[in-house]
Model the fold of this input.
Amino acid sequence: MISRISITGLKDFLLCPRKIYFSNVLRIEKKKKSVRFAFGTAFHSGATPVWLGRKNAFALSWVGFRGDKSITYDDRLLGNWDGCMEKGRVMSKGLETFLHENDLEIVNGKRGLEIPGTKEIDKMTVSYRVDARAKVKRFPMIIGGVEKKISGSVIFDLKTAAQQYPIHAARRSIQLSGYSYLSEEPPDFAAFLIVTKAKSPKIQVVGVKVDQRLLKEFEETTKGAIAYLNTGVYPANRGDHCNYCDFYELCYGSKDGDKKKNVNKLFKRRSRSRP
Ligand code: SF4
Done:
């Protein structure tokens, strides 16, 4: 029975329950990671310390990324290691300049809270690690499709992306509403800070105003997800998002045919044994 889930896990569960079955029930290790995530993870793990003022963190994360032998990455990126390092450096520089220009006062995030559920799962711990929380003054942010200058407290989630986000990306985001809900003191705004993986990276801030409606929505959605988890049914929801899924090969056919067959057998057996 799943009793602990991260915000990202919750988002995945709402998108495709089968994915959570692979990762949280069968606990299948991700053997091959999509190159998009590899790049994002390396950038991300270096970014938080930079937020908090510890320089050189990017260099360390990139070295760690290269040396991580436990995961097989798609070799398109590793084949062009120098280009990748250069891109990372440019993106890091862009982010640092942005932080400097906007004079953000960074304070730490918090993690973990128990949310009451129903029936067998009477409570669920939803954990999160927010990238930064800052106090801003006349800070430019796209809200509801329009750029505004906002003042107040903001929670940031750093994203790397191939291209800029749609201007309404923050609306109905379970991550942003979740981070806000789980904060000891809800922020005034929650936003994605997106750094694009271009030669000249663009930085974009797409956010949402945090109000009672947003917090209530998250609570209701989470309670609904917990109730659904109680049923023990994890159907696959196939779609474009499968292209970014670490379990793609298990779902759609794998070079390792036996493994796929075994996982499918196990899935059927466990599904049948559920009430
Ligand atoms: S490949 Fe698609 S259907 Fe299969 S677990 Fe991943 S997201 Fe779900």
